[in-house]
Amino acid sequence: MSLYQWLLFFHVTGAFFLIGGIVVAGTLNLAAILKDRPPSQVATLYGLIRFAVPLIGVGLLLTLAIGLWLVHNVGYSYGDTWIVLAIVLWVVASALGNVDGKYQRQTGELAARLAAEGDVSSPELRARLRNPRALVISYGSGLMAFAVLGLMIWKPGV
Amino acid sequence: MLALVRPDSWNLPLFLHVLGATLTFGTTTTVAVVGFAGLQGDRERAAWLRSLNFWVAFGLLVPSFILMRGTALWILDKEFPGGHNEPGWVSVGFAVSEPGALLVLLMVILAWFGRSPRSRVAVAIPWLASILLVGLAIAWYAMSAKPGS
Question: How many angstroms separate the CA atoms of A145 and B111, rounded?
Answer without folding.
Answer: 30
